[in-house]
Amino acid sequence: MPRTPKAKTTTAESKKDAPKRAPRKKAAPKPVFRTGYVALMGRPNSGKSTLLNALLGQKVAIVSDKPQTTRISILGIKTSEKGQIIFVDNPGIHKPLHTLNKRMMNFVYSALETSDIICLLVDATEKFGHGDEYVLETLRKVKTPVFLLINKVDIVRKDKVLPIIDQYKDLFPFKEIIPISALKGINLDVLEKLLLELLPLSPKVYSDEEISDQSERFLFAEIVREKILKYVTQELPFVTAVYIEAIEKKDQQDWNKPGEMRPVAYIRASIFVEKDNHRKIVIGRHGSLVKQIGIEARQEIAEYIGHKVFLDLQVRVRENWRDSEDVLDLIEGQKG
Length: 336
Ligand SMILES: Nc1nc2c(ncn2[C@@H]2O[C@H](COP(=O)(O)OP(=O)(O)OP(=O)(O)O)[C@@H](O)[C@H]2O)c(=O)[nH]1
Ligand SMILES: [Mg+2]
Hints:
By secondary structure, the protein is of the alpha/beta class. The chain has eleven helices and nine strands. The strands form two sheets. A six-stranded mixed beta sheet has the order 2-3-1-4-5-6, sandwiched between helices. Strands 7-8-9 form a three-stranded mixed beta sheet. Helix 7 (216-231) runs antiparallel to helix 10. Bound molecules: guanosine-5'-triphosphate and magnesium ion. Magnesium ion (MG) binds next to helix 2.
């Protein structure tokens, strides 16, 4: 049967009843969002962890004036309306002697391969040397864009910075060269803007609340180690490691407020050293040094978790732990 064509209904009546169309608007530009990995690289002590904390506006990495403080890479995630920058704080680039140091350098190599941008930090107060050549050699192995960050400009004369820029720009094709101070926050806004412009257009990888990839346990171990590094010298910074044996959280009677309970954390930690004379140094006269380390670490951990903490520290000898895969696995395994 032939189908009768539908009657047109464009009478004056029907036009009046039709819903009014909104006037055509220009399509709003799609919001641009960039996400990527930015590796912080450089020699030990150049200020990578200080920079990570400054960029995030809070402490996620420990800092010390002794070299080789950072042993395991950690992430610091900064999310804004414009993008998500995933900073990777790495151990300092050095020639590895022990298995510990080889593992530290493996973190550096893997960050080199997986980052979208590399920030090379150099210490403006240090003379260029073999160590710096070694760093540039390491960076030549990849094609990733590299920003040169001349750090610690807060403590060098202005006329010292220009010769450093001149020297470096002849040695490597840096994408950007920026004098900064991680400690005083100089030029960090410029750095962040330039990083965001270069990162790939991509949705975020982490949720807005996530700021790091480290576990609470690892952070506590690092806080204890930071306090040790503050007080020890010579070979001691290199031969100490911290292992959190246990964390127990309980609700206990609050004696100041009868009838009320309050949370308390009991933390047991071991400080590993390599020899008995190291152990004696870390313990100190009549236990004074380990006590001081314990007081400072406990305060910082309590501030972080927001309630009372009991911290029990034991100093133990683990001969040649820096070459023991088992001990190294144990320490690394804390990161979760
Ligand atoms: N004056 C000054 N000191 C800084 C600056 N940035 C870092 N420092 C100091 O340099 C020392 C080393 O800082 P870290 O952030 O631990 O250095 P790092 O590069 O992470 O070191 P490793 O983890 O050992 O590779 C600390 O004493 C910091 O306070 C800066 O911009 N100005
Ligand atoms: Mg560090």
